[in-house]
Amino acid sequence: MSLDARIQQSVVVNLSNRPAPVHVGPFVIGVDPTTANPNINYATPRPGAAITGADVADLVAAFRDADRVPRLEYVVGCAPELEPLLVAAGFAVEARHTYLCCRPETLRATATPEGYTLRAPDNDGERAALIGAQHDAFGGGSVASAEDVARMRRAQDAGGVALMAVTGDDVCVGGAQGIPPSGGLSEVAGVAVRAPFRRRGLAGALTADLTGRLFGAGVEIAWLEAGGEDSWRVYTRVGYQPAGQRLYMALR
Questions:
Q1: How many Å is the maximal CA-CA distance in the chain?
Q2: Is-contact 100 242, C-beta < 8 A?
Q3: CA dihedral of 80, 86, 92, 96, whole degrees rounded to 10
Q4: In whole angstroms, how large is the CA radius of gyration of the chain?
Q5: SUPFAM superfamilies from the entry (predicted)?
Q6: Is the CB of residue 215 less than 8 Å from the CB of residue 107?
Q7: Helices 124-137 and 146-157, interaxial angle, to 10°?
Q8: Closest Cα to residue 158, out of 140, 139, 179, 183?
């Protein structure tokens, strides 16, 4: 199986493990009843599946039935015919991202900046602090809902990894997560550092440490997406390498 197909299949499995997944022809929608956030409730195609305009129409209807915004994320190489079908149905491109991969032999050890500690949250209070730091870093406020915390707890219970960066007085200033592994792969997501604590090497330390923990748990390939030039530099510096393209499309 190609790397593109392995990445795509891992996303299919991740969405299928959501609390209320919906399977529609060649697609799976990862529905989470606790939130309507389109960044959580989205669909992806099964790698290599034949897709028609009728399949896309059925997908849109399933999103409407679930009271969710029709939205997809997928590896372009696994469904090259899908974009024009989505455009014809009224979808628009939100983003095109390069995904990067890291293997144990390419990971570069990165020191944690002096005065900070990296550790996994082991109670709901620490999970809330981590999520709050991520929300703050991404401009979404600093409050973690009970549903956010429960989602992180479920991911950890399923084999995912969460990591928080804390100061000497135990204030969480950033964090990252590794999605529960599937087929030897895990996605690294939510790498975030609060603005006052950036440019100190924390993002690189979080990424490298989290990735190392995933490899220690048996993951063969960790993958992620860079949101801009700064994060691209961070990720390539710790051993991630460009590997393929992902596409985000939505019907608003």
A1: 57
A2: yes
A3: -20
A4: 18
A5: Acyl-CoA N-acyltransferases (Nat)
A6: yes
A7: 110
A8: 179
Q: Which two tokens stand for residue 243?
A: 């590997």
- The CA–CA distances, whole Å, from 67 to 12, 30, 41, 42, 147 equal 21, 13, 10, 12, 18
pLDDT in tens, 186-244: 999 999 999 999 999 999 999 999 999 999 999 999 999 987 888 899 999 999 999 99
Taking the C-alpha atoms of residue 126 and residue 92, their distance in angstroms, rounded to an integer, is 38
Domains of the chain: 3-90 (no CATH), 116-244 (3.40.630.30)
The pTM of this model reads 0.93
The one-letter amino acid code at 191 reads V
What whole-number distance in Å separates Cα of residue 12 and Cα of residue 96? 19
Can you spell out the DSSP letters for 82-146?
HHHHHHHTT-EEEEEEEEEEE-TTT----PPPTTEEEE---SHHHHHHHHHHHHHHTTS-SPPPH
Whole-Å CA distances, 182 to 150, 220, 229: 21, 10, 29
Q: pLDDT for 6-63, tens place per residue?
A: 999 999 999 999 999 999 999 999 999 999 999 999 999 999 999 999 999 999 999 9
Q: What average pLDDT is seen over the chain? A: 96
